[in-house]
């Protein structure tokens, strides 16, 4: 079983308990572990794989809580870093009209430093770059780029999820697109939402969007479509693989669960070659990942709702 190195942010989401009010009126918040790459590492380890998290938290009680949460899920946190800067915090509430009210206090996640000693361990493993905050600048962005090149020179299987958050890029979506492109060019697998595929390619039509993103460099594209399934595009073939019918209560983390399950299955293969040629094989893996995504929507929270291998087999 290969290791899956997941690089990016780990942060606290303070979620307002009473929905329907904006943050100025919210009094009670629930503390939750957040951060897409960290969720992906948890998804992989919970399924029995080797999820490794590389990111930075503050040397404070919140940082301690976050690392303990990952450890409990079986994630290898030995490469996580502690900073004197406070742990990154996000405050979220849903206002009466269903709009998200969001305040982001960026701290330690941006401080992640490149670890050159890691290079020798990377060969033949998987690298997952989940970019929600990474492209916002700071040492993390530079570290990200260095690991991308390490991944290429060490023949890793590279996966990229842009994790676009409108709250973080409201003013400057062009910069987001520009910063994503080198990762789309160099990654073997890209996971997009419909919005991300359209935004980054500049194409409304999903097939045209995929063609353009393939042209940029990425060989395998998955576009997650919520209850409508996942579009898989590779080797000149495109197919929507249907989702599993469930009664969702909270869709937080479904995308992370999906990509985590897909990478878990790839990590279980002896070598990566078949992934690039065998459409039916990847289709089967996507169908399994759809199942993981669907299960995650049937419970509240991101990490708690991730399935185990037994849940998937049921
Ligand atoms: P995120 O915002 O967490 O990054 P995303 O937009 O990338 O999520 P989604 O499309 O919401 O991802 O969900 C990922 C996968 O989970 C889907 O492709 C689908 O297989 C499954 N899924 C999500 N929502 C549902 C649903 N309501 N019913 C069944 N399956 C779902």
TrEMBL record:
Residue span(s) of domain Carbohydrate kinase PfkB: 1-308
GO molecular-function term, one example from the UniProt record: kinase activity
Superkingdom per UniProt: Bacteria
InterPro entries reported in the protein's UniProt record: Carboh/pur_kinase_PfkB_CS, PfkB_Carbo_kinase, PfkB_dom, Ribokinase-like
Alphabetical keyword list: Kinase, Transferase
A UniProt-annotated Pfam family: PfkB
Annotated transmembrane regions: none
Family of the protein in this entry: Belongs to the carbohydrate kinase PfkB family.
Entry protein name: Carbohydrate kinase
Organism: [Muricauda] lutisoli
């Amino acid at each position: 079983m290969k290791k899956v190195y997941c690089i990016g942010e780990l942060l606290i989401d303070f979620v307002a308990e009473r929905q329907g009010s904006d943050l100025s009126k919210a009094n009670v918040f629930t503390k939750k572990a957040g951060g897409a790459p960290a969720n992906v590492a948890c998804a992989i380890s919970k399924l029995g794989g080797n999820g490794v998290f590389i990111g930075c938290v503050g040397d404070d009680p919140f940082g301690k809580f976050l690392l303990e949460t990952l450890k409990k899920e079986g994630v290898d946190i030995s490469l996580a870093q502690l900073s004197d800067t406070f742990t990154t915090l996000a405050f979220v509430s849903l206002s009466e009209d269903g709009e998200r009210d969001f305040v982001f206090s960026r701290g330690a996640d941006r401080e992640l430093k490149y670890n050159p000693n890691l290079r020798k361990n990377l060969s033949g493993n998987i690298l997952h770059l989940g970019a929600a905050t990474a492209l916002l600048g700071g040492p993390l962005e530079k570290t990200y780029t260095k690991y991308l090149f390490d991944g290429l020179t060490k023949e890793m299987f590279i996966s990229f999820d842009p994790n676009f958050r409108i709250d973080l890029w409201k003013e400057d979506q062009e910069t987001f697109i520009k910063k994503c492109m080198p990762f789309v060019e160099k990654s073997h697998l890209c996971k997009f939402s419909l919005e991300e595929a359209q935004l980054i390619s500049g194409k409304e039509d999903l097939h045209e969007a995929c063609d353009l993103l393939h042209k940029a460099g990425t060989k395998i594209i998955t576009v997650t479509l919520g209850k409508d399934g996942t579009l898989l595009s590779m080797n000149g073939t495109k197919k929507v693989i249907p989702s599993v019918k469930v009664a969702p209560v909270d869709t937080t983390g479904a995308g992370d669960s999906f990509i985590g399950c897909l990478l878990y299955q790839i990590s279980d293969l002896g070598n990566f070659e078949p992934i690039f040629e065998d459409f039916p094989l990847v289709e089967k893996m996507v169908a399994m990942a759809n199942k993981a995504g669907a299960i995650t929507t049937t419970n509240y929270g991101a990490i708690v709702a991730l399935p185990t291998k037994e849940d998937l087999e049921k």
